[in-house]
UniProtKB/TrEMBL annotation:
This is ATPase, PilT family. Residues 522-546 are annotated as: Disordered. One of its GO terms (molecular function) is RNA binding. PROSITE patterns: KH_TYPE_1 (PS50084). SUPFAM superfamilies: P-loop containing nucleoside triphosphate hydrolases, PIN domain-like, Prokaryotic type KH domain (KH-domain type II). Keywords: RNA-binding. Residues 1-115 form the PIN domain. In the N-terminal section; belongs to the PINc/VapC protein family. SMART domains: PINc (SM00670). Pfam families: PIN, T2SSE.
């Protein structure tokens, strides 16, 4: 018997398997050089499939040395262009030619290769993949009723996130360190199960990363060279809810049924966003709305009436084009992260489709701000009119998003009226934030009890005035606001002429740009304010904690380890520079080249004292 195995049969180890059970005793195995070349190419690229195939060839050599089979390498290697066209069948065609030339039986576990060979009149033996039981998920033992995710990696102890959504913890669940061999076996079994089970499918298959969906498990398998070791992360929902389980259920039901809406469901990873999105999808479907989903990967646990779509040819924009032909009433978009995702979300919403998007955010307002710069500001309320923030599995905050032409809170002059996006508390109707443009910049101003915070708008106006004056002044600049339409600018005496300009032309241009009247005076005339350090007057006393910013290649960094999560003001010689929130790493990082970074570096160069105080 003459046998020609193709690449799939060699990688799967099906040749040695059948030799060992006696099926191919004394057979002549003809291995095409095209198969060797393909395996060598995959192994050189670091793919496990290539190494598995080469290991199989070594087993065949062992059988040949024992006299169990005869082994020959025949045919030609595929050219570079044929290797590049392997996915189009170029290498498979060479292998079929070898089988035909030697009048041999082709062995394959590739159904397409087998069917093409049969059509060409070749003798074919198709090796059916072993279909595993639906209960054969190899890592199922790590899950219990409170396990949301399991995290496995070579040379580490298995860990899991367990507990209720309100108290999830990341803990070691087994003291046995996993070996590379064990991880490789689990990874292979998971991928095989997804390909063969009726309840599983491969969502993504790229060199080094495979994502599968099996039942309600979403499993990511990372391998070298993409990862530094084999890693398996399996996630599943631990609860399934209905809309009735959440606060504001009645109001949210009425809002969703009133007309097609644009909704952002936001929250931190693991907060329960997808669980809430599933509840919304089921509610809409039960109320006779045509509901579809857009997911990559598809892991929402919804009923069979809701069709789940993934990225068509890797592009969600193509999926959206297809969905517009299907004409859904609502589409659940999980997850909206990149600029192209927001663009697709906005296009579908403006086309009249109700959209519910799942977005990562640490605050409800952050979800909406992710649209700024990606969607024209005035169109945001048409794209998103409701923001739902989920925390610990519960609805924490709901915002209503509208737009109105008005004077922003804290300003009074009628000529400052502009389109303002109002973000209001859904339950009480109390405004919480306003978003609008101020001097060509988009600003988000938090409101308190319906009014702007004491110095919120003033700080923005002051910052803009200081920027304009510092662009022409060489020395110290200070600004005092005198109402909403007037300001006094104090500069060094030598800078007066530069700031005012010939015939007052320069300061007039600045006034026109800012829409505010400016009176220019010397620093000596500033009432109740000491002179800056080095000017011959008394030293400024720091109003806050003195810091020493660090200038790196890409950032200006201010360390504030004791103020994580707090909003602080940064000042130079008691003059306001900017407001920022201290990150989780205990620092503020300002990108170099930005206007704020340039002001801060300029203050450092002038040896001004940099201080921070709680805003």
């Amino acid at each position: 018997m003459k046998l020609v195995p193709d690449t799939s049969a060699v990688i799967d180890g099906r040749v040695s398997e059948r030799i060992a059970d006696g099926s191919y005793k004394e057979a002549t195995v003809l291995v095409p050089e095209a198969v060797v070349g393909e395996l060598e190419s995959q192994a050189n690229a670091g793919y496990d499939s290539g190494w598995n195939g080469l290991e199989e060839l070594q087993k065949l050599t062992g059988f040949a040395d024992e006299g169990t089979i005869e082994l020959e390498y025949v045919g030609r290697r595929a050219s570079g262009s044929e290797q590049a066209g392997a996915s189009e069948g170029d290498v498979d065609a060479i292998i079929r030619d070898v089988a035909e030339d030697h009048e041999a039986t082709l062995l394959s576990s590739d159904i397409v290769q087998s069917e093409v060979a049969k059509a060409k009149g070749l003798s074919v033996e198709y090796v059916e993949p072993e279909v595993q039981s639906d209960q054969d998920l190899p890592i199922a033992q790590f899950f219990d009723d409170e396990t949301m995710s399991v995290h496995l990696k070579t040379d580490t102890k298995p860990k899991a996130k367990r507990g209720a959504l309100s108290g999830m913890s990341y803990k070691t669940i087994d003291e046995t360190v996993t070996s590379d061999e064990q991880m490789d076996e689990w990874a292979d079994d998971i991928e095989a199960l997804a390909r063969t089970s009726r309840e599983g499918f491969v969502e993504l298959s790229e060199p080094g990363m495979t994502i599968v969906q099996y039942q309600d498990y979403r499993i990511a398998v990372a391998r070298p060279p993409f990862a530094d070791g084999i890693e398996i992360t399996a996630v599943r929902p631990i609860v399934k809810t209905t809309l009735d389980d959440y606060e504001f259920a009645d109001d949210l039901r009425d809002r969703l049924l009133e007309r097609q809406r644009g909704v952002l469901i936001s929250g931190a990873p693991g907060a329960g966003k997808s669980t809430f999105a599933q509840a919304v999808a089921e509610f809409l479907n039960d109320n006779d709305y045509a509901v579809k989903t857009m997911e990559k990967p598809r892991d929402l646990q919804v009923g069979p009436e809701i069709t789940q779509y993934t990225a068509l040819a890797g592009d969600m924009a193509k999926t959206a084009d297809s969905l517009l032909l299907v004409r859904p009433d609502y589409t659940i978009y999980d997850e909206v992260r990149k600029t192209e995702d927001f663009s697709v979300f906005a296009d579908m919403r403006l086309a009249g489709v109700g959209m519910v998007g799942v977005v990562h955010a640490t605050r409800a307002i952050d979800a909406l701000q992710r649209l700024v710069g990606r969607v024209e500001l005035g169109m945001i309320p048409q794209v998103v009119d409701t923001v739902v923030y989920i925390e610990a599995g519960e609805v924490h905050t709901v915002y209503d998003v509208t737009t109105e032409v008005k004077v922003p809170e804290g300003l009074t002059a009628e000529d400052l009226a502009r389109p303002v996006i109002q973000i209001s508390d859904f339950e009480t109707g109390t405004p919480a934030y306003e978003i609008y443009t101020f001097n060509r910049q988009v600003v988000t101003v938090p409101l308190k009890d319906g009014e702007s915070q004491d110095t919120g708008v003033d700080r923005i106006a002051k910052q803009e005035i200081e920027r304009e004056i510092r662009s022409v002044a060489r020395g110290h600049v200070a600004v005092d606001l005198k109402g909403q339409n007037n300001a006094v600018v104090y500069v060094e005496e030598d800078d007066i002429s530069y700031v005012i300009g010939k015939g007052g032309g320069r300061i007039t241009d600045i006034e026109d740009r800012l829409g505010i009247d400016i009176d220019v005076r010397t620093l000596d005339e500033r009432p109740g304010s000491p002179k800056p350090s080095g000017s011959g007057g008394e030293e400024l006393q720091p109003a806050g904690e003195v810091v020493q910013p660090e200038i790196t290649a890409r950032h200006v960094v201010i360390r504030l380890d004791e103020h994580v999560g707090e909003t602080v003001e940064v000042q130079a010689d008691n003059e306001y520079l900017f407001t920022a929130t201290v990150g989780r790493g205990g620092d503020i990082q300002i990108s170099r080249g930005s206007a704020i970074a340039e002001e801060l570096e300029d203050a450092i160069d002038r040896k001004q004292q940099i201080t921070v105080s709680t805003a």
